[in-house]
Amino acid sequence: xxxxxxxxxxxxxxxxAAGTHSLHFFGVAxxxxxxxxxxxxxxxxxxxQISYYDSTMKKPSLRTNWMNKTKGHEFWDxxxxxxxQGHDTSKWSLRNTIQHxxxxxxxxxxxxxxxxxxxxxxxxxxxxxxxxxxxFISLDVETLTxxxxxxxxxxxxHKREANKAWKQISFNFYRQECFQLLEWYLQYGxxxxxxxxxxxVTLMQRKARESAGTDVICHVTGFYPREVExxxxxxxxxxxxEGVWSGEVLPNEDRTYQLRKILTVSPEDQKKHxxxxxxxxxxxxxxxxxxxxxEAALNMGFVAAGVLAALGLIIxxxxxxxxxxxxxSGARSPDYTPxxxxxxxxxx
Length: 348
Prior knowledge:
glycoprotein, alpha+beta, 8 helices, transmembrane helix, immunoglobulin domain, about 30% strand, MHC_I-like_Ag-recog_sf, Major histocompatibility complex class I-related gene protein-like, Immunoglobulin-like
């Protein structure tokens, strides 16, 4: 089921399996009076945004410099044509769908389509439509027929299937052009799209909030591509699921990613077992295992001693600075008598 809002469709990125490359496009048509552009289109290759367009712009914009090649202009002109067609189609679809539902007020019509290339040579292409974030209709690429998710979508099915020119355009794009575009993007964007960056792994611990145990945080960051597998292992062999909380894979500012997995360990288990965070990523020759070494709990005496030591250091620095200042300004001290100057005449 598709569940996308106007903003969510722009943020959603397909989580493809390792070894898969994808070209996705997302389009959203919105009723007037929302403050949003009436149409927005975003193009993505894997997890890299390559294009952006909204109805306030004269033409779509490129978001990558590796597309500025001679042959790239040919592909970009073709992609621009599809973006403009998507704009017109989505506006028409929104207007007619609102009528078939007999709705009033603010509504959205969303399109999500594209293609995938897998490392084993298999291919897949798709096109889904949603109305107000719910399944509306989808294209069966093999038969070029539409599958209506709700009765109100039947009008769209009949309209498109009766249009022979549109069926030929769809056949060309989803069977051929989409994959040609993706292969070209991968060729010229290799440094960006096919780079491999090793993750850095850090283990941190804290007192568990809802138990007497310890939360051990495995923070994996700086890796690319996005796909990563992070697991907590007990005694070097048992993969743990219970007591483990997993965060989402989040982007870093440098186009790498980060992920956290938190394991809660009871005081009893901490004494009986050993634990390690295991990371598997395309940049690694073999899985990375980072063993957790429990830290001694901080006590108030240790904290107090640390605070006193820090205060002592600060006081020593201040006293030293005062002494240095006093010596440097010795010429202005009351008990300092400057030597009598000797004129050239006295020397003779």
